[in-house]
Design a protein that fits this description.
Layout lengths: L1 H11 L3 H14 L4 E7 L5 E6 L9 H4 L26 H7 L2 E7 L6 E7 L2 E8 L4 E7 L6 H4 L5 H18 L4 E6 L2 E5 L6 H9 L1 H5 L1 E8 L2 E8 L4 E2 L5 E5 L2 E3 L2 H10 L9 E2 L1 E6 L5 E2 L10 E2 L2 H17 L4
Parallel strand pairs: 1-7, 12-15
Antiparallel strand pairs: 1-2, 2-6, 3-4, 3-6, 4-5, 7-8, 9-10, 10-15, 11-14, 12-13, 16-17
The protein binds adenosine-5'-diphosphate and magnesium ion.
Adenosine-5'-diphosphate binds next to helix 2 and helix 4.
């Protein structure tokens, strides 16, 4: 079983950033409205996520760390209409197999919570204790028992860069949740959680960046685009500020980058890559999100339609901007 866990962990857990992505998705699925992320040494020494969500029932805590156990699907039919981020029930098992995990969790109407400590997939302690409502999970010494994989981690600053990018993207896709990100005891950002995308962007990327954005709010059935794009001139030397969501879920999409960049063709740009942060709402049958376990790759049923509609929406918006 331990070997199986370690192998399967390779699918989704490749670095501290992927641990954080899975844990944040769990906190979001648990209906939290404040989430704090702390990392030490690029997440190699410590990743700590604290949420104020629904918590885990005491009797289920151990179970949550077993493979293929999820509270999110009870019937096979549920697979067809998944609206939670996680559903495979693999993340906690995978993470616990390759690190030292400590969790405290309490359901809101329970007097006490549970503390559990797991190392390399083995429960070393479990006890009842008093704790705040919600869940705190600490992941220490990632890959301590798989040195070959530890060796492939990059230096701390690079790993924390990866983490920062994931945390930013998740925070931006949930402006209704207040996220606090702390790196080596220093606060990096703190989003207000007031469900306003603009103030969320402002708190993450700062005033100058936010003020050079134009709002886009476009509907052309069945597609709806909402968010912000950069004024022409606001551009980057890479695509790291091209942030796309489909139905509120972060995705990587060459087609969307292409549509964005083509919409700016002919406009004056300092760098090559326009910035954008927007969500596209689409009927789920127009896409297939489950291409990869990490779920950021996306496939559209009709790529060229999405390309055309998106490019059209953006170039229309750019035309009506007074520059
Ligand atoms: P999945 O998210 O696919 O269900 P995970 O391994 O990520 O699988 O989590 C297993 C289970 O643990 C979840 O189904 C959920 O019931 C519980 N869980 C994990 N993290 C949290 C959290 N932060 N708050 C409440 N429940 C959680
Ligand atoms: Mg999960």
């Amino acid at each position: 079983v331990r070997t199986a866990n370690k192998i399967a962990a390779g699918e989704v857990i490749i670095n501290p950033a992927s641990v954080i992505k899975e844990l944040l998705e769990n906190s979001i699925d648990a209906q939290s409205n404040t989430i704090t992320i702390e990392i030490i040494k690029g997440g190699k020494e410590l990743i700590s996520i604290t949420d104020n969500g629904i918590g885990i029932p005491a009797k289920d805590v151990k179970l949550a760390f077993q493979r293929h156990t999820t509270s999110k699907i009870s019937k096979v039919e549920d697979l067809e209409k998944i609206n939670t981020l996680g559903f495979r029930g693999e993340a906690l098992a995978s993470i616990a197999a390759i690190s030292k995990v400590k969790m405290t969790t309490r359901e809101k109407d329970q007097e006490s919570g549970v503390f559990i400590s797991i190392q390399g997939g083995k429960v070393v302690k479990e006890q009842e204790l008093g704790c705040p409502r919600g869940t705190n999970i600490k992941v220490e010494d990632i890959f301590y028992n798989t040195p070959a994989r530890y060796k492939y981690l990059k230096k701390d600053s690079i790993e924390s860069g990866y983490i920062g990018q994931i945390v930013e993207k998740i925070a931006l896709s949930h402006p209704e949740i207040s996220f606090r990100f702390i790196n080596n005891d220093k606060q990096v950002f703190h989003t207000p959680g007031n469900n306003d995308l603009f103030s969320c962007i402002y708190s993450i990327f700062g005033k100058n960046f936010a003020h050079d954005l134009i709002e886009i709010n476009y509907t052309n059935d069945p597609l709806r685009i909402k968010g912000f794009i950069g004024k022409p001139g606001l551009s980057r030397s890479n695509r790291n500020r091209q942030i796309f969501y489909i139905n509120q879920r972060y995705v990587q999409s060459k087609i969307l980058s292409q549509a964005l960049e083509d919409a700016y063709k002919g406009l004056i740009m300092v760098h090559k890559f326009p910035v954008a942060i927007f969500n596209i709402e689409l009927p789920p049958e127009m896409l297939d999100v489950n291409v990869h376990p990490a779920k950021t790759q996306i496939r559209f049923q009709n790529e060229s339609l999405i390309y055309l509609l998106t490019k059209q929406a953006l170039s229309d918006r750019l035309k009506t901007t007074s520059l």
